[in-house]
Amino acid sequence: MRKIAIANEKGGVGKTVTVINLAAALAEQGIKVLVVDMDPQANATKGLGLDPDQQQVNVYHLINGDEGVSTEQAIVSTSWQGLDVVPSHVDLAGAEVELVDVEGREDRLSQAMDTVDGSYDFVLLDTPPSLSLLTVNVFAYAKEVIVPCQTHPYAYGALEELFDTVDAVREAINPDLHIAGIVPTFYDSRTRVSPRILERLKADERYRDLVFDTTIRVNTTIADSAEVGKPVVYYRRSSYGALDYRSLAGELLKR
Ligand SMILES: Nc1ncnc2c1ncn2[C@@H]1O[C@H](COP(=O)(O)OP(=O)(O)OP(=O)(O)O)[C@@H](O)[C@H]1O
Ligand SMILES: [Mg+2]
């Protein structure tokens, strides 16, 4: 079972869209995927067609260690075969404060996920745009990190920060954690900046071996599909968004 965090401390770089559509593109191939939504914004939950307020159990209950709530209860099927989700809720934002004095607070998710081992081929975890306790919980559990990186000048600094964070977590908490890949997102060949940033990324010796060949192009259908709560892979099968995420899934399976 591959446990992959999708992370970048910078906001709006395509983390959630990558979680949703990578999951869908893998499930489409008959691979069993569980999405764990660890962002209180719950955008992955919504993007997979679920209303966070309508779910009886969510990831907050697992992190909080609510008595009598099992992880199995928190797993919800989506409308798509082989694609399940542990939904999030805005309540999750409170976990940070509530757990501040609790010992072992970084391991809450790992403990909750113990019983899930082996039931899925992939677990994809969405993270909030900050280095919060929630992200640390994800990094304590995951083995691989995929970093969506906007092909935009400001995205570059965030990348450095994330690499430092992953190094720190590896040393302190989870020796298995490593960066599995960088996905260039919001690529627009009509601009001067997108190709230039991509080129720079591929030339940088710290990053070049990690950059996926697939770049995710700017595609308004992606935003539309998130809005209606459907992965773009199912919403418009031949859109750029669907093609790019299928290509990314293919590459991930080879890594
Ligand atoms: N390739 C793309 N083309 C066009 N729009 C996109 C693309 N990828 C993502 N978007 C849109 O951009 C916005 C930000 O994407 P997304 O929510 O995935 O980013 P994020 O990194 O998860 O943000 P946050 O840090 O707030 O969680 C969303 O409205 C999404 O629909
Ligand atoms: Mg997000």
Task: Round the Cα radius of gyration to an integer and report it.
Answer: 17 Å
The largest pleated sheet is described as: 7 strands, mixed
Please work out how many helical segments DSSP would assign.
12
* Overall SS class: alpha/beta
Poorly predicted ranges (pLDDT <50, ≥5 residues)?
A: none
Give the names of the bound compounds.
Answer: adenosine-5'-triphosphate, magnesium ion
First-residue to last-residue Cα separation: 14 Å
Structure description:
41% of the residues lie in helices and 14% in strands. The mean pLDDT is 95. 48% of the residues are buried. With 255 residues, it is α/β, with parallel strands linked by helices. The chain has a single domain, classed as P-loop containing nucleotide triphosphate hydrolases (Rossmann fold, 3-Layer(aba) Sandwich), CATH 3.40.50. Helix 1 crosses helix 12. The protein is built from 12 helices and 7 strands. The protein has a 7-stranded mixed β-sheet with strand order 3-4-2-5-1-6-7, sandwiched between helices. Strand 3 and strand 4 form a beta hairpin. Bound molecules: adenosine-5'-triphosphate and magnesium ion. The site of magnesium ion has 5 residues, from helix 1.
Quick overview:
This protein is α/β, with parallel strands linked by helices.
Give a topology summary:
Layout: E1 2-6, H1 15-27, E2 33-37, H2 43-47, H3 59-64, H4 71-74, E3 76-77, E4 83-86, H5 95-98, H6 108-113, E5 122-126, H7 133-141, E6 144-150, H8 155-172, E7 178-185, H9 193-203, H10 220-228, H11 232-235, H12 240-254
Helix pairs in contact: 1-12
The chain binds adenosine-5'-triphosphate and magnesium ion (MG).
Magnesium ion binds next to helix 1.
